[in-house]
């Protein structure tokens, strides 16, 4: 088993492969976990989301989110899953070299309805100390329509920009770059009670 495969929670691996099967059956195209396949995923999403009932959206959310999350994890360094059982709203990708986390399933849920959904963690969560710099960078590059924002392709491009800004901020901590382990994210999400970020 490859190291990258070992890091995938089993349910994420199953859902991501289910997504690949859905797309292959519907569009006769193969997804290969690269960012270049995200426009294909967006096309599939558009074919399914328009007429989808709430039940169908609920069934599509985990496979689409897992595939998108795997594209991110495989494309960027130091990214890991936090996937606690059946608590899908608490799933997240955590970045080790910068403080950044978000729920790929939440991004899929929002993409399916074309709107924000509270409580699903789809927004990119960053430290307050980086917020102004990241917001200014996003404003300088803001040519995204609201419809595009809810696509996997644009979310990935936005994520790349956010990560690049955060890495630049972290480079100021040289020669001792910070690392953000699981306990930091557990503390930030309240899973460690009153423990604080370090």
Defining traits:
four-stranded antiparallel sheet, disordered N terminus, 198 residues, alpha+beta, Four Helix Bundle (Hemerythrin (Met), subunit A), 9 helices
Short description:
With 198 residues, this protein is an alpha+beta fold. It has helices at residues 3-6, 10-27, 38-49, 54-75, 104-113, 128-140, 146-149, 152-170, 182-188, and strands at 79-82, 92-95, 100-102, 125-126.
Structure description:
This protein is an alpha+beta fold and 198 residues long. The protein has one domain: Up-down Bundle (Four Helix Bundle (Hemerythrin (Met), subunit A)). Helices cover 55% and strands 7% of the residues. It has nine helices and four strands, in the order ααααβββαβαααα. A four-stranded antiparallel sheet has the order 1-2-3-4. A hairpin with a 4-residue loop joins β2 and β3. The N terminus and C terminus are likely disordered.
Could you tell me the CATH topology label.
Four Helix Bundle (Hemerythrin (Met), subunit A)
List how many beta strands DSSP finds.
4
Q: What is the first-to-last residue Cα distance?
A: 34 Å
Number of helices: 9
Describe the sheet with the most strands.
4 strands, antiparallel
- Write the element-wise H/E pattern from the N-terminal end onward: HHHHEEEHEHHHH
What is the mean pLDDT?
A: 88
| Morphology | globular
Give the DSSP E fraction (strand runs of 2 or more residues).
5-15%
Please state how the strands of the largest beta sheet are arranged side by side: 1-2-3-4
Please state the CA-atom Rg, rounded to the nearest Å. Answer: 17 Å
Q: In percent, how helical is the residue content?
A: 55-70%
Number of domains in the coordinates?
1
CATH architecture: Up-down Bundle
């Amino acid at each position: 088993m490859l190291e990258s495969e070992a890091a995938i929670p089993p349910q994420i691996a199953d859902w991501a492969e289910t997504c690949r099967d859905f797309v292959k059956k519907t569009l006769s195209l193969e997804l290969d976990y690269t960012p270049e396949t995200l426009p294909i995923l967006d096309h599939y999403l558009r074919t399914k989301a328009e007429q989808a009932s709430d039940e169908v959206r609920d069934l599509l959310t985990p496979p689409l989110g897992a595939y998108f999350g795997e594209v991110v994890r495989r494309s960027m360094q130091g990214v890991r899953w936090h996937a606690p059982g059946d608590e899908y709203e608490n799933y997240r990708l955590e970045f080790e070299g910068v403080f950044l986390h978000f729920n790929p399933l939440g991004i899929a849920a929002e993409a399916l309805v074309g709107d924000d959904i509270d409580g699903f963690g789809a927004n990119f969560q960053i430290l307050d100390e980086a917020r102004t710099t990241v917001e200014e960078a996003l404003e300088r590059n803001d040519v995204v329509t609201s419809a595009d924002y809810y696509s996997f392709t644009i979310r990935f491009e936005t994520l790349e920009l956010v990560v690049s800004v955060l890495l630049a901020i972290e480079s100021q901590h040289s020669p001792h770059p910070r690392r953000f382990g699981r306990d930091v994210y557990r503390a930030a999400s309240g899973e460690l009670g009153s423990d604080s970020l370090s």
